[in-house]
Design a protein that fits this description.
Shape: globular
Number of helices: 0
Helix content: under 10%
Structural class: mainly beta
């Protein structure tokens, strides 16, 4: 039983599925009926090949005690971004908030991208991630007010993380001053 309403996307011959726990079998054996975690998990199905769980830590451990949702995959199929409540996907995840993660399917590395320039944890939930084709840029919506150095925001905004430079910038800003309303639902051109 796969919940395709969360996300179904194609990138070449890759089908990305977000489903209820127990639907994604990382061993490549197809769908399962039960899982001891009881949360959402993410998997990639390589059409005519195998299934791979992608909501995992860099060491391969599955996300525990939190749902992983809203997956997006880069056009070349290498990078998957998703939001998760799990606190065991990266070391030092102590904010008790939904964070945005990027999983590199080639290296197996998972990193949290909803962080400030100085790597400080977001003090609010982050969600709605999108990723560039090469995985360098990840845009996301966040309720956090501490992602910009020296600026505290009180409404949800859209941010862009440059993984190569290690910077986070706000995208939803007027030409002068700070945003005075909320923004959401980022997208990236292919």
């Amino acid at each position: 039983m796969i919940n395709l309403s969360s996300a179904t996307m194609r990138a070449g011959s890759i089908l990305l599925l977000a489903g209820l726990a127990g639907c994604v079998d990382a061993s490549g054996g197809g769908a399962r009926e039960s899982d001891e975690i009881g949360e959402s998990e993410l998997g990639i199905t390589l059409v005519e090949e195998s299934t791979e769980r992608v909501s995992v830590s860099s060491g391969g451990g599955q996300a525990l005690l939190g749902a992983s949702v809203t997956p997006q995959i880069s056009r070349n199929g290498r990078f998957v971004v998703f939001a998760s409540d799990a606190s065991n996907l990266v070391a030092g995840d102590n904010n008790d908030r939904q964070d945005v993660f990027l999983h590199d399917r080639v290296t197996g590395q998972t990193e949290r991208v909803s962080v400030a320039d100085n790597e400080a944890e977001a003090n609010g939930d982050s969600f709605e991630p999108v990723v560039s084709e090469d995985g360098r840029f990840v845009a996301f919506t966040s309720l956090a007010g501490n992602l910009l150095t020296g600026v505290t925001l009180t409404t949800q905004q859209v941010y862009l993380r440059d993984r190569q430079l290690g910077t986070t910038q706000i995208l939803s800003t007027p030409t002068v001053g700070l945003p005075n309303g909320s923004s959401r639902a980022p997208s990236m051109a292919a």
